[in-house]
Amino acid sequence: EVQLVESGGGLVQPGGSLRLACTTFGFMFKNYEMNWVRQAPGRGLEWLAYISKSGNIIYYTDSVKGRFTISRDDAQDSLYLQMDSLRAEDTAVYFCARQHSDIFTGDSMFDHWGQGSLVAVSS
Amino acid sequence: DIQMTQSPSSLSASIGDSVTITCRASQTIGTFLNWYQQKPGKAPRVLIYGASTLQSGVPSRFSGSGSGTHFILTINSLQPEDSATYYCQQSSSMPPLTFGGGTKVEI
Prior knowledge:
The structure holds two protein chains of two kinds.
Chain A lengths: L2 E5 L2 E3 L5 E8 L7 E7 L5 E7 L6 E3 L7 E6 L4 E6 L8 E10 L6 E6 L3 E5 L2
Chain B lengths: L3 E4 L2 E3 L6 E7 L7 E6 L6 E5 L3 E2 L7 E6 L2 E6 L8 E7 L7 E2 L3 E4 L1
Parallel strand pairs in B: 2-11
Antiparallel strand pairs in B: 1-3, 3-8, 4-5, 4-9, 5-6, 7-8, 9-10, 9-11
């Protein structure tokens, strides 16, 4: 069974740092592109960051560029999100999501998600 | 960036009804459009990918259509468990990947 389990969330002061981890089970982690998506309280979904299978291609949304860093450790079957210079507006539930890409059609989707990890930024 | 606009933002329907949710892209995205369902306190799950392909395990009362900039999610014979928020997402161009604002379906 495919599982993604986030950890590392919590309460942090503005300007502080947190590192989220997404530990995966039940599939060959190294064969998948991965993403982070967040959801502020009562709001919609916001894509944050993408990392390729090799880790060589990384993208961020503008609001976190320069503050957040996505990384992966295939030996640990894990995805990470280092979050620095946190702001109140970063308060959200953070999801890791596996990306399934069809090389023939070009379709891609987030086919498995973690349960989410709550990050609260407040003094 | 490609903007995704969903309508309506919420709707109320009865068991057995059919409902449609519309998603418009700010520029053409072919059929690179996915639909997700999210229930309170849970992670989203993919329902439809490639605008019209039903994800494995998703009931056949869900269907998707459209291409270019205009897309529709249809739920036929609405069931109590379909009460959720639905999001469209474009996978045509990144960064960024973008989601619609969501449509809350109440039954």
